[in-house]
Amino acid sequence: MGDASGEFEYMALDDFEELLADKPASERWELIGGRVVRMMVGARWEHGRIVQNIAFGLEQRFRASGSSCQAFTETFYLKSRPLEAAMLPDVLVVCGDLEPGATSVDNPTVPFEVLSPGTEARDRFEKWLVYQQLPSLQHYVLVVRDRPYLEVFDRIEGAWTGRPIEGLDAVLALPAIGAELALRDIYRRVFAA
Question: Which segments of the protein form a coiled coil according to its record (predicted)?
Fold first, then answer.
C-alpha cells in the first residue's frame, strides 16, 4: 500500500477487487486511476453529521417527488473499469434501478465529497479527474467541513462549469436530479443557525 514516502501501489480494477476480499474490516481502500489509496477511518463528527444531513435531505426529496434517484453514503462503490477506479464518495446519488445485490455502480449522477485537510487535494484533483470522465455524471459537489461553503461543478451542454455557494441562507440546486438543499439543512447541528 501507499505510505507517506510517496510510494504507491498501482493495479487494475480486477486485481483491486480481489484485494478487497482480503482487506481488514477496519480499513477502507479506494482505487483512483489505478492507484491504491487507504482511506481515513474515523472522521470528525462534523464530517459524519454533514454526510447524514445530505443523504437524509436528498432521500426526503426523492421520496416526495417519486424520483428514481437514491442516495448512498460512504459504503457504496463507484467503479469504472476503463478508468481503473473504485471510489467511495461521501454521498453518491444514482438514478434508476439497481440490480439486486449490487455493491457498486458505474453510472452515478452526483457524488458529494466532504473536504478535510487530509482528503481535500485528492477529492479536488485526483478524484475530479476521474469523475469528470464519467458520462452519467451531471454534478460534483465539494462540501467544506469547517464553514458553510460548497463548490459545485455542473455539466452543461457537455462542458463543466463551477459555482460557489456560501452561507447558511444559500440553497444548493441540482437540476439534473430535481433536488434542492438549503445549506442550513446540510450543516444542521454543525453550525448554529
Answer: none
Write the CATH number for 78.
3.90.1570.10
Residue 76 domain boundaries: 44-186
According to the model, what pLDDT value does residue 28 have? 82
Q: Under a CB-based contact definition with an 8 Å cutoff, are residues 97 and 70 in contact?
A: no
Q: Is residue 32 part of a domain?
A: no
pTM: 0.90
**Percentage of the chain exceeding pLDDT 70:** 93
Q: What is the mean pLDDT of residues 12-30?
A: 84
**Tally of domains in the chain:** 1
* pLDDT tens track for 114-170: 999 888 999 999 999 999 999 999 999 999 999 999 999 999 999 999 999 999 999
For the chain, the C-alpha Rg in angstroms (whole number) is: 16
Closest CA to 154 of 176, 128, 171, 127: 176
State CA 116 to chain mean position distance: 13
